[in-house]
Amino acid sequence: MTDAHPTPARSHERPPVYVIGGGPGGLAAAASLKAHGVRAVVLEKSDRVGASWRAHYDRLHLHTTRRLSALPGLPIPRRFGRWVSRDDVVRYLEKYAEFHDLEVVTGVEVTRVERTADGTGWHLRATGGRELTSNAVVVATGYNHTPRLPDWPGRAEFTGRLLHASEYRNPVPYAGQDVLVVGVGNTGAEIAVDLTEGGAARVRLAVRTAPHIVRRSTLGWPAQLTGILCRRLPVSLVDRLAEPLGKLSVPDLSAHGLPRPDTGLYSRVRDGSIPVQDVGLIDAVQRGKVEPVGAVASFDGDTVVLADGTRLTPDTVIAATGYRQGLENLVGHLDGALDPATGRPRTPHPLPGLYFQGYTNPISGMFREMARDADRIGRAVAKHV
Ligand SMILES: Cc1cc2nc3c(=O)[nH]c(=O)nc-3n(C[C@H](O)[C@H](O)[C@H](O)COP(=O)(O)OP(=O)(O)OC[C@H]3O[C@@H](n4cnc5c(N)ncnc54)[C@H](O)[C@@H]3O)c2cc1C
Predict the structure, then answer these.
(1) What is the 3-state secondary structure of the chain?
(2) What is the mean pLDDT of residues 278-302?
(3) Are the beta carbons of 136 and 123 closer than 8 angstroms?
(4) Confidence at residue 245, expressed as pLDDT on a 0 to 100 scale
(5) Among 12-21, 205-214, 273-282, 344-353, which stretch is predicted with the lowest mean pLDDT?
(6) Which of 6-20, 26-40, 173-187, 344-358 has the lowest mean pLDDT?
(7) pLDDT per residue over 42-80, tens digit each?
(8) What mean pLDDT is reported for the chain?
């Protein structure tokens, strides 16, 4: 790994393809480019690869299997187990960059991608006044780039502690506290369980829309494999198949405040909401350790007001309310690059020489899809340059 200064191409050399972001998506793209004979330089804003994974909470494990999460050209070691821990994901990403001998330049944040004046290539502006030019660029800055904190009325005046889930590491600081976790995606569900196991006095979980909950694995069969098999089936068919299976495998938690969802599982995925993989939520809700409550409507001094009018006074509110892709400053000015409604790339390859990696959230697992997309990017860029 190199530091801070990308080596410019000598005048007779073709400039490298720049990959923005040294997470799994960017590293996989760079490895694939290399495999297709294209020199790639990864520009990473932090000081090491895998920055997002280094910052995740302590108990996190991949909920996709080791085998189905490997990036191109390097399996995840068997000793990391079936559900790979956060630290082992980081180890794997470090090893991945080393194994493929990737050129990674750390400490460089790309701030803007522009067309070159002659319209044939791309011009990158980066921190430290760096200016780089290339025929092709791969943007891989992460689906979970910028924490999203809803603009609840009264939020700024809340006198309790409010943090985004991206700041949560472990339950230690919350021992003995009354905590409200907002949002029941995979992150909110797992943090709620972590808090109960780590000594929080009371844990409530604010639920706006009842989630689909699936077992991470049933009789050894991982939910991810079902996701892969269902991926190309019609949405309505998967919705119909999932309903009775859901009822068989997940108990009805309505009496505990968590009703079954009223829209189909795959319809929800299409709307951007991945099912919650159970890593203890069902048990915690059944035992009353995690108490589902209504959605948060507003804040009032030390009080959180729920949509049904209930008023709570937790010590801490942890908002597991997702992320934005934060691509506006980087590429938002490029005509046709982003979908204005979602802020995500219109397609993975919206303009000649501009590629996006990792901006979908598929039911089949992002690592798996990024591995497959990396190969497509490698082939397309090799043809382009
Ligand atoms: C809590 C959590 C659990 C997940 N679990 C799974 C799972 O089990 N299985 C699965 O398949 N997927 C999972 N995902 C989804 C996805 O696989 C990960 O988010 C994955 O890290 C995405 O990889 P990425 O490279 O696209 O983005 P990131 O890992 O976020 O990497 C982006 C990189 O770009 C850098 N960067 C950002 N902006 C710039 C810039 N302007 N210039 C230079 N560098 C920049 C960042 O520092 C970072 O290193 C999970 C996501 C989260 C949040």
Answers:
(1) CEECCCCCCCCCCCCCEEEECCCHHHHHHHHHHHHCCCCEEEEECCCCCCHHHHHCCCCCECCCCCHHHCECCECCCHHHCCCCEHHHHHHHHHHHHHHCCCEEEECCCEEEEEECCCCCCEEEEEHHHEEEEECCEEECCCCCCEECCCCCCCHHHCCCEEEEHHHCCCCHHHCCCEEEEECCCHHHHHHHHHHHHCCCCEEEEECCCCCCEEECEECCEEHHHHHHHHCCCCHHHHHHHHHHHHHHHCCCEHHHCECCCCCCHHHHHHCCCCCEEECCHHHHHHCCCEEEECCEEEEECCEEEECCCCEECCCEEEECCCEECCCHHHHCCCCCCECCCCCCECCCCCECCEEECCCCCCCCCHHHHHHHHHHHHHHHHHHHC
(2) 97
(3) no
(4) 86
(5) 12-21
(6) 6-20
(7) 999 999 999 999 999 999 999 999 999 999 999 999 999
(8) 94
Report how far ligand 1's centroid is from the alpha carbon of 358 (Å): 8
Query: What are the φ/ψ torsions at residue 254 (nearest 5 degrees)?
Result: -55, -40
- Pocket lining: 317 vs ligand 1, CB cutoff 6 Å: no
The pTM for the full model equals 0.94
Query: For residue 385, what pLDDT is reported?
Result: 87
Query: Given ligand 1 and candidates 27, 45, 122, 274, which is best to mutate, with the most ligand atoms within 8 Å of its CB?
Result: 45
Distance from the alpha carbon of residue 52 to the mean position of ligand 1, in angstroms: 5
Question: Between the CA atoms of 335, 339, 343 and 344, what dihedral angle is there, to the nearest 10 degrees?
Answer: -100
Which residue, judged by its Cα, is nearest atom 6 of ligand 1? 62
Whether the CB of 15 sits within 6 Å of ligand 1? no
Q: Mutation test of ligand 1: which of 58, 71, 141 has the most ligand atoms closer than 8 Å to its C-beta?
A: 141
* Among 3, 44, 102, residue to substitute to test ligand 1 (most atoms within 8 Å of Cβ): 44
Give the tens place of pLDDT for each residue, 126-141: 999 999 999 999 999 9
* Whether the predicted pLDDT of 11 surpasses 50: no
How confident is the model over 142-150, as a mean pLDDT? 97
Average pLDDT over residues 85-107: 98
Does the C-beta of 106 come closer than 6 Å to ligand 1?
no
| CA-proximal residue: ligand 1, atom 38 (nearest) | 141
